[in-house]
Write a structure and sequence with these properties.
By secondary structure, the chain is mainly α. The protein folds into 2 domains: 85 residues, Orthogonal Bundle (Transferase(Phosphotransferase), domain 1); 146 residues, Tetratricopeptide repeat domain (Serine Threonine Protein Phosphatase 5, Tetratricopeptide repeat), CATH 1.25.40. The protein contains 13 helices and 2 strands, in the order αααααββαααααααα. The chain has a two-stranded antiparallel sheet. The relative contact order is 0.06.
């Protein structure tokens, strides 16, 4: 099975630079399939020549980027970058290397990085016997985002490492209506269900039992855990209660 790597990106850049130089794409057609076949089988019209100069003098580089064989294209981004810089110098054009701005930071996988942060960061304050810790919610945000990503990819075991450290049963039970605590509770419960610990998931989700307003995920996850342990009557009761409050989640149970 072919692997899409940097050479495919370089080909795509060649297509963009071709249009940049002459104002048209290397291949056109009425249907996507027709254009795709041209990319596979045909050679684009040559840029430049003895009597025709291109705007930036990149015809050889663009032709190399559009080679059918990946082995004949520039071997790396650095090689492509050097060729662009050399062409700019020949034409007296200022060349600036683009450095993308960091829009947000994703930490390393939580199973490794999050416990290290909690145990070693000076931004985390522990009690005397280190059973609890005080940390700013803004410091935790990126780890919760990562745990969400891990769950979306099916990696519940590593997401559990994050949510397990953030779920404090006593605090959730004392303020069951607090949105952050509810989020930690239902997500940790789901991770426990997906990693084969439905009994523990039920105990975790019970922390929200006294909440006046429970999230829809509470009923979905609790009923799922009850099904996993074979407590079908409780699962039916939980599902019915959830459907009375959130009638729109009926589709979830029907699909599942």
């Amino acid at each position: 099975m072919p692997v899409v790597g940097h050479s495919a990106d370089i080909y795509s850049l060649g297509v963009l630079m071709y249009e940049w130089e002459c104002g048209t794409r290397p291949f056109t057609g009425k249907h996507p399939e027709q254009i795709a076949l041209q990319h596979l089988l045909e050679t684009p019209k040559k840029l430049g020549g003895m009597l025709k100069r291109t705007r930036f003098g990149l015809e050889k580089l663009i032709a190399a980027c559009l080679e059918k064989s990946p082995h004949n294209r520039p071997r790396s981004y650095d090689e492509l970058d050097s060729a662009l810089e050399a062409a700019a110098k020949r034409r007296g054009i200022q060349y600036y290397k683009y450095v993308p701005r960091l829009r947000w930071e994703m930490p390393l996988v939580g199973a490794r990085e999050f416990p290290r942060f909690m145990d070693l960061s000076p931004r985390v304050r522990h009690n005397a016997d280190r059973t609890y810790a005080i940390v700013g919610r803004s410091d935790l945000k990126k780890y919760v985002q990562e745990a969400d990503v891990l769950m979306s990819t099916g990696d519940y075991a590593q997401a559990k490492e994050v949510y397990g450290r953030l779920f404090i049963k006593d605090l959730v039970e004392s303020s069951p209506g607090y949105e952050w605590g509810q989020l930690m509770c239902v997500n940790y419960g789901l991770c426990l269900i997906e990693t084969g610990e439905p009994e523990q998931a039920i105990e975790v989700l019970k922390a929200l039992a006294s909440a006046k307003d429970k999230p829809a995920a509470y009923y979905v996850n609790l009923s799922l855990a009850q099904v996993k342990v074979g407590d079908f009557s409780s699962a039916i009761a939980t599902a019915e209660e959830g459907l009375r409050i959130y009638p729109k989640i009926r589709a979830y149970w029907e699909i599942s």
